[in-house]
Design goal:
This protein is mainly alpha-helical and about 150 residues long. The protein contains seven helices and three strands.
C-alpha cells in the first residue's frame, strides 16, 4: 500500500513536469498566431479565464490615484505643486480689434476664416488644447498683441 502511494505521488510529480515541457515548447509567435485567429468573443472569454486562473484583473489602473507610502506617511506636509505639462489656451474676450484677433486665431490654428470668426465671436472659447507651456505662452502673447484677453488653464 505504501508503494501505491509513492507511485501515485511520483506520477503526480512527473505530470506537471511534462506539462511544463509542453508549455515551454510553445513560442510567442505561436501564441500570437492563435490569438489572431480568435474572435472577439473568444478573446473576451480568454481574458476572463486568465483573470480567474491567475487571480488578476485586466482593468486599467489609475497611476495617480494610488497613494504611495511617502504620501500617506506625511499628509500634513503638502508637496509643492508640480508644473503642468499641458495647457489649454482659452480666449476670454476679443477686445476692440476683432479682425486682428481673427487673423491671429487663423495663424495659430488650422481653422478657416468662417470657423475662426465663429470661435472669436463665441468667446470665451478654447483656442488650443494640450500644448506645452512655451507654446501656450507664445499663443497668449500673440493673441494679447492682437487685442484679445487670454487665459491659460
Amino acid at each position: 500500500m505504501a508503494t501505491e502511494k509513492t507511485t501515485k505521488e511520483e506520477k503526480e510529480k512527473a505530470k506537471p513536469a511534462k506539462e511544463q515541457k509542453q508549455a515551454k515548447g510553445i513560442t510567442k509567435e505561436e501564441i500570437i498566431a492563435a490569438i489572431k485567429d480568435m474572435t472577439v468573443v473568444d478573446l473576451a472569454d480568454l481574458v476572463k479565464s486568465l483573470e480567474n486562473e491567475l487571480g488578476i484583473s485586466a482593468a486599467p489602473i489609475a497611476i495617480g490615484a494610488v497613494p504611495t507610502a511617502a504620501a500617506t506617511a506625511q499628509p500634513a506636509e503638502a508637496a509643492p505643486e508640480e508644473e503642468k505639462a499641458e495647457y489649454t489656451v482659452v480666449l476670454n474676450s476679443i477686445g476692440d480689434k476683432k479682425i486682428e484677433v481673427i487673423k491671429a486665431v487663423r495663424e495659430l490654428t488650422t481653422l478657416g476664416l468662417k470657423q475662426a470668426k465663429d470661435l472669436v465671436e463665441a468667446a470665451p472659447q478654447t483656442v488650443k488644447e494640450s500644448v506645452s507651456k512655451e507654446e501656450a505662452d507664445a499663443i497668449k502673447q500673440k493673441l494679447e498683441a492682437a487685442g484679445a484677453s487670454v487665459e491659460l488653464k
